[in-house]
Amino acid sequence: MTVTLDGLTEADAPRCAELERILFPGDGPWPASAFVSELRARHNHYVAARADGVLVGYAGLAGLGSARDPENEVHTIGVDPAQQGRGIGRLLLDDLLAAADARGGPVWLEVRTDNEAAIGLYRSAGFELMGLRKRYYRPSGADAYTMKRPPTGSEQSGRDLAGEEA
């Protein structure tokens, strides 16, 4: 099986919503309309992982702050449970981090405290635990860790996620 990455499109929104319901059933999974809204926001970067043309994963990053003081936030990463453990999450995260590095600034995210696989992935990518958000996820009430990856030396400050001057 070959996995390729490309841009997430509005046509992918229903499949993303389907995966959200499977992956995050007690944590307010995003509907298709939320993905469409995110894809229309200029400051966001969303990527799709496809295996034989089928969407098997997705990830999104928001560019925040100004060009002089940029920050980035991972909004979501999801991989079809049947495809987990094959490195797809790593490919998606690497794509988001490359976009963040091109823009500059640190990268923030929240992750459920009981999601050991995701926490391990984020730690291996340079994220550090910054704090705990009690009852962050709704409606489950699950806690989340806030994690941060400091800016890298290869960043290019002053660029937006599309590579244009901000």
UniProtKB/TrEMBL annotation:
CDD domains hit by this protein: NAT_SF
Keyword Ribosomal protein: yes
A cellular component term, taken from the record's GO annotations: ribosome
Stretch list, region Disordered: 141-166
Composition skew (Basic and acidic residues), residue ranges: 157-166
Source superkingdom: Bacteria
Keyword line: Acyltransferase, Ribonucleoprotein, Ribosomal protein, Transferase
Matches recorded under NCBIfam families: rimI
Name of the protein described by the UniProt record: Ribosomal protein S18-alanine N-acetyltransferase
Taxonomic source organism: Speluncibacter jeojiensis
